[in-house]
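Entry type: protein chain
Record version: 2
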Amino acid sequence: MNRKTAVMTITTILSLVIGGCSVLNGQTPSSETVATVSSVSTFQSDSIETTAESTIASSMASSQVTASAFDPEVAIDFSEELGAGYMYQDKFIPQQFLYISDKKIVIAFFLGGTEQIREIDRSKFSRMEITKTSDFAQVKIFDVSGSILSINLSPEDADEIQSVLG
């Protein structure tokens, strides 16, 4: 399911839920009923959005995201803007990147013009864990507060990061 289909499905379901709850048994609902319906609608909305996010995430993991949803130039421009000396692309999620600059360690996720960015100040870097298989390596970077940045890379890229961060 692509992103547009997920958004249209959520919108349709929400309009049916909200529109279908405006009259109860042919009577106008009391304020108590409206409050109950509003909280039910909010609950259903949250579960629908979570489902849509899960669907989008699983689509990305299986590389079914269309080329128009991600522009590689955005990742390169972000690297220049950040002043990152190192840039690595996730092995399984092509929209996710790890950037290492003198001041920050950043994981950025780019999709459809939006960015999700998580970062650790380089001075607060605590340790790193690398779990390797023959095909990939999972790199986890920790700061002193326990925050974690995680990405899957090639074993060679993991070795390079280990030498960069020490």
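Comment: The longest helix spans residues 31-61.
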